[in-house]
Design a protein that fits this description.
This protein is an alpha/beta fold. It has helices spanning 41-46, 65-76, 89-99, 134-149; strands at 2-9, 16-23, 29-32, 83-86, 100-102, 105-106, 113-116. Strand 1 and strand 2 form a beta hairpin.
């Protein structure tokens, strides 16, 4: 199955704040991760206020990185070969870093394929129902790829 990825993070190169995977069809994944350290002012204004602007059943308190990694592992486990689609390299980097649980350790995952669609002139946030919310931005990415690029 193909999953469209978006993340929110604490400024350029900063820690993961939230991650969403939206499949072509089926159950979506959304997690908020506890963010350590000072929050970048832009993130405080444009990301944090919208973290819980998701469907009621998906609202949850922030969790540790390990809990988020375990949840992601469990979500992907039924798929033998997921394809992760993103429009920005840091989204894939954030997902991959979340999978790491320590030196030489990672959560169990299936074999995965990563695909980046560079889309000059398209912004997931500008086309999202809730800009800078990972779930809504991932939905916007899915809709754009499925409706425009295919």
């Amino acid at each position: 199955m193909r999953y469209f990825l978006d993340t929110e993070f604490n400024g350029f190169g900063g820690g993961l704040i939230s991650l969403a995977l939206v499949p072509d069809h089926g159950e979506e994944f959304y997690v908020i991760v506890e963010c350590e350290g000072p929050i970048h002012p832009w993130v405080e204004r444009h990301v944090l206020p919208y973290l819980d602007h998701v469907p009621v059943g998906m609202k949850a308190a922030p969790v540790s990185r390990r809990a988020a990694a375990d949840a992601l592992s469990a979500y992907l486990a039924p798929d033998r070969s997921p394809e992760i689609v993103a429009d920005w390299p840091e989204d894939i980097a954030q997902l991959c870093m979340l999978l790491l649980t320590g030196p030489g350790d990672m959560v169990p995952i299936p074999e995965m394929l990563f695909r980046i669609y560079p889309m000059p002139g398209f912004s997931t946030a500008d086309n999202s129902k809730v800009p800078h919310n990972a779930l809504h931005d991932a939905r916007a990415l899915r809709d754009h790829v499925c409706d425009t690029l295919e």
